[in-house]
Amino acid sequence: MVPEPVILDVDPGHDDAIAMMLACGAPELDVCAITSVAGNVSLEKTTRNALKVLSFVGRTDVPVGAGAAAPLARVLRTAEHIHGESGLDGADLPEPVLVPDGRDAVRLMADVVGESPEPVTLIPVGPLTNVANFLEEHPRLRQNIRRVVLMGGSIGPGNVTPAAEFNVYVDPEAARVVFESGLPTTMVGLDVTREATAGPEELERLRSLGRAGEVAAGLATYYYARAYRRTYGLAAPPIHDAVAVAAVVEPAILQTRSMRVDVECEGVLTRGETVCDVYGVTGGSPNAEVAVGLDREAFFEILFRSLEEI
Ligand code: RIB
Ligand code: CA
């Protein structure tokens, strides 16, 4: 089995950090690069947090390209109320031993995709600004992109407004570029990630996995869990981003439906809504595989097994 080359585009964020660890521990994946984007916190902090995670897992071979400090056409909206001022409050991670690559996110994406002998899978788990910029600046490289598996959107209610999920809300114009790119796209939205909650049983299992599991449990327990309880009344936090990575490792953990997804960019109340044509009433051609079901147990087994590898 040849590992699938992937690039993670991240805005760490507690769940991004766990997603990065899953990707680095999964033998099915070859993490060619990490690119950072402003989202949960500022670009400076998401970049630093990505460097901290890679330093912790010992992947000093993986370049980190810093990307967009703001959305394409909007004022940045962040989520310190969930992730804390640092973006990883409460995390027991060492100071980074890595520095960002000399290339920015788009240049790094272009070099990795342009030079890869195998088509590369993009796994964006933050606002889609970097991916949109890359697709627009390097249209010819689209032919060497295998698929885009993104954490974002929602068929149903949002989490940052009643209509919109955070990643798409922050940069709806970028999300529209990605959904209209014509690339094979899987939308891993709140409809399924809300099932991926790390409760007492999962936390106990994580803590039994050694250093990476202990850190992941810490990420899920401390600040992030409390913030989710306070903000959404949830007993346990959903590890949104790790579901997108696990779905690349094993697509069968998701049940998906092919449908048209449009992104609302003009609405006031509905800015950033992923308008999913579940019943095909628009007649628009499907542009995404949208996740409608998650095999929760299989997801966590992939997470546990990957973290045990680190
Ligand atoms: O809505 C959840 C998404 O927004 C996750 O990617 C989380 O990290 C934040 O970026
Ligand atoms: Ca994220």
What does this structure look like?
The chain is of the alpha/beta class and 310 residues long. It has a single domain (4-308), classed as Ribonucleoside hydrolase-like (Inosine-uridine Nucleoside N-ribohydrolase, Chain A), CATH 3.90.245.10. It has 13 helices and nine strands. Strands 3-2-1-4-5-6-9-7-8 form a nine-stranded mixed β-sheet, with helices on both faces. Strand 2 (29-36), helix 2 and strand 3 form a beta-alpha-beta unit. Helix 4 (105-115) packs across helix 5 and helix 9 packs antiparallel against helix 10. It is globular. Bound molecules: alpha-D-ribofuranose and calcium ion. The site of alpha-D-ribofuranose (RIB) has 15 residues, from helix 1, helix 6 and helix 12.
